[in-house]
Amino acid sequence: MAYAFEVTIKSLPFLLEGALRTLQITSLAVLLGLIIGTLVGMAKLSKYKILSYPAVVYVEFLRGTPLLVQIFIIYFGLPAIGINIPRYPSGIIALGINSGAYIAEIVRAGIQSIPKGQTEAAKSLGMTYWQTMRHIILPQAFRNILPALGNEFIALTKDSSLVSVIAIRELLRSGQIVISRTYQSFAVYIAVALIYFILTFTLSRIVRWTEKKVAIP
Amino acid sequence: MNSADSKPILRIENLWKSFGKLQVLKGINLEVDKAEVIVVIGPSGGGKSTLLRCINHLERYDRGKIWFQGELIDETSTDMNVLRTKIGMVFQQFNLFPHLRVIDNLILAPKIVKKLDEKSTMEKAKELLKRVGLLEKMNEYPSKLSGGQQQRVAIARALMMDPILMLFDEPTSALDPELVGEVLDVMKNLANDGMTMIVVTHEIGFAREVADRVVFIDGGIIVESGTPDEIFKNPKHPRTREFLRKVL
Ligand SMILES: Nc1ncnc2c1ncn2[C@@H]1O[C@H](COP(=O)(O)OP(=O)(O)O)[C@@H](O)[C@H]1O
Ligand SMILES: [Mg+2]
User: Fold this and answer.
1) Which of A120, A124, A214 is the best substitution to test chain B (most B C-beta atoms within 10 A)?
2) How far lies B164's CA from each of A17, B177, B189, in Å?
3) Contact B82, B30 (CB under 8 A)
4) Nearest chain A residue to B104, by CA
């Protein structure tokens, strides 16, 4: 037992390096997801079917298939048709595309939560669709959906452990490497779990703080 | 007076509008001259809001023609965003932008739509806030203002674009009675300064005092129109009489 503890402590810097990579991957994926999600969410609400239909298909397909399969398609599937993406970007893209679908739904609900009068007031002042979105609707919508986006960020932090299967050395993968050298699977997995928890707990605090910070007086 | 001035600012000819099967406007004809104040009255559901919203093209219409400043408004060739900068609109629910301070509510559109520089826009905004008596509220958020104050800010915001025509859709209907006066005062001043205005309201006192012409709309048509005296003292149509009996 004492040995297991010692091994884990010794491997901590290595695990933390993995945790840092987990944070990196997740942050970039959330960023990608936010961009995709905002555009797809807006497209879903478009009166033009050529925009709304593909958006619906995107959301339904990505939410209706396992993330693990999506990761495999991007990292192992695409090379078969001549598209080679290195593992690290592959992981980020897979996670980003996936979270984009969930964020699209959140953004759509957020936009719909803003009273129609806001759009009309903006239009009556001569603002274009994009100006109205950029300056009036999205700033209000994002304040409303911040809690949901925070949850998505936290969920993605946990889901990012799936990219360990394509040998990206994030937190879980780092733990597995330590175990393969030391055979202390119980202690190390517990350590890994604790680090995930610290990450998600801290994130939820940051989200709550941000919520208060940007609330409309 | 040159010929552009003598033309009506707004001319509406045979305007029809339906929502699905519901026929809301059934052939509206209306001309508005420069500096004229038109007050539109009529029962709820008669199509008053729809008429205003067709004028600045917040709503598309099915049939009919609208000329603004002598130019036919056309779906394909008129830039509706440019058109809307020339037609100010004030809503029953104020519709201020809650995430922006009062001053930013005023300067946003001039800045991003007209691309005017911040400094002159700022000065103009302060001037207008002074005019509506709310300069000291410039850094407040809308939620901190009373309904009457919010509506005055909304009027100032619309005026920032230097509109040629102002549309008011029941601007005092959502206000507590004691706050109605301050908003009507701002509108009276605006009318006295020569603004062309179409005002949907139930404030008969305002109509009597300020309107050049009163238009009674019911069931999607203009049932009767005339000077305030003609409409309020001597309404010709039974529907007008019945309506006035209810509101007076
Ligand atoms: N966007 C809409 N969709 C469907 N029906 C509408 C819409 N806007 C207005 N209406 C209907 O059109 C009629 C006229 O409405 P409106 O112009 O708001 O009347 P008013 O302002 O005179 O009370 C009402 O029956 C209303 O329910
Ligand atoms: Mg109305």
Assistant:
1) A124
2) 64, 30, 16
3) no
4) A135
- Over residues B6-48, the pLDDT tens digits come to 689 999 999 999 999 999 999 999 999 999 999 999 999 999 9
Pocket test for ligand 1, best of B22, B91, B221 (most atoms within 8 A of CB): B22
Q: Which ligand is nearest to the CA of B19?
A: 1
B16, containing H or E segment: strand B10-19
SS (H, E, C) B23-61: EEEEEEEEEECCCCEEEEECCCCCCHHHHHHHHCCCCCC
Q: Which residues contact B139 (CB under 8 A, 6 or more apart)?
A: B101, B102, B103
Place of tokens 């509108």: B187
Topology of A18-172 in CATH?
Answer: MetI-like fold (1.10.3720)
Low-confidence ranges of chain A (pLDDT < 70): 1
For chain A, which residues make up each domain, given as ranges? 18-172
Element (H, E) at A107: helix A87-112
**In this structure, which amino acid lies at residue A130?**
W
Ligand closest in space to the Cα of B170: 2
pTM for this one? 0.92
Enumerate the residues of chain A whose CB falls inside 8 A of the CB of residue B143. 216-217
Give the residue carrying structure tokens 């809001």. B49
- The answer, yes or no, to whether any atom of ligand 1 lies below 6 A from the CB of B44, is yes
A135: nearest CA partner in chain B:
B108
